[in-house]
Amino acid sequence: MPLQFQMIEKIKNVSISETNGFGEWGRDGKAKHSSIRDYVESLYKSKDFFDWRELFKIDFFDKNFTEELSGKISDRLKFLDGNPYLMHGDFGNDNVYIKEDVITGIIDWEKSRYGDHFLDVGRVVLFCPSREASVAATLSFYEDKEYENYKERILLGVYFAMLSNYAFAAIAGKKESCMQYPARIKQIENLLTP
Fold first, then answer.
1. How far apart are alpha carbons 188 and 56 in whole angstroms?
2. Pairwise CA distance, residues 110 & 113, whole Å
3. How far apart are CA 4 and CA 88, in angstroms?
4. Mean pLDDT of all residues in 125-144
5. What is the pLDDT of residue 17?
6. Start-to-end C-alpha separation, the chain
7. Which of 22, 3, 180 shows the shortest CA–CA distance to 89?
8. Which residue in 15, 26, 159, 164 has the most C-beta neighbors within 10 A?
9. Please, where are the H alpha helices in the chain?
10. Among the listed residues 157, 168, 153, the one whose alpha carbon sits nearest the alpha carbon of residue 126
11. pLDDT (tens digit, 9 = 90+) per residue, 71-87?
């Protein structure tokens, strides 16, 4: 896992123009959101990602869970530094090639965007099969870095990834996965902020 976090840091350090905006970019390299807050909130305050009213019609879709995640995201937006960074957008084991303890390639850049790299970190934490291992590795990697409020930013990334994937799972009819997501979030919260 440290290799993945090192690569997220390398991606984050790619030089981009601060005038490019936030979110997915168009052919001109510009994104439509003027701030990280606008971009992150567009996940649940607009139809940029999903039509939430349609999702609420799915019988097993828990509106309260989505509202709780949205609130937790909103509460943590103040911890982001407001700078645009290059993000992979779908970072994790399934898109990383590792050979002999070296990352040799990263695939599937379809969801790349300008945002906060802790959104990528949160996705890695969320989707590692062992939450204990992922949280321990994340805390170990970031504890000596110079990021203020890194735990809150990691949690924001976890919530952002979960909210998006909860919607995708509901659309795909994955009721069992949706039912397990609240417990997964609680477990990560307990491990990150005991």
1. 25
2. 9
3. 12
4. 94
5. 81
6. 21
7. 22
8. 159
9. 2-12, 36-45, 52-55, 63-76, 117-127, 131-142, 150-171, 175-192
10. 157
11. 999 999 999 999 999 99
Q: Which two tokens stand for residue 105?
A: 């390639």
Dihedral pair phi/psi, residue 189, rounded to 5°: -60, -45
- Which among 73, 194, 71 is positioned nearest to 136, based on CA atoms? 194
AA letter at 160: F
Q: For residue 127, give both structure tokens.
A: 């989707």
Cα Dmax for the chain? 48
Evaluate if pTM is beyond 0.85. yes
Residues 6+ apart with CB under 8 A from 120: 8, 11, 87, 88, 89, 91, 157
pLDDT at 25 exceeding the cut of 80:
yes
Q: Is 86 helix (H, G, I), strand (E, B) or coil?
A: strand
What is the separation of C-alpha 5 from the centre of its chain, rounded to a whole number of angstroms?
13
Write the Ramachandran bin of 21: left for phi over 0, alpha for psi from -120 to 50, otherwise beta: left
Question: 55 — alpha (psi -120 to 50), left (phi > 0) or beta?
Answer: alpha
Strand partners, 105: 97
Q: Please name the residue that has the structure tokens 């609130």.
A: 71
Residue that is written with structure tokens 């991606």 in the block: 11
What distance in Å separates the CA atoms of residue 17 and residue 141, rounded to the nearest whole number? 27
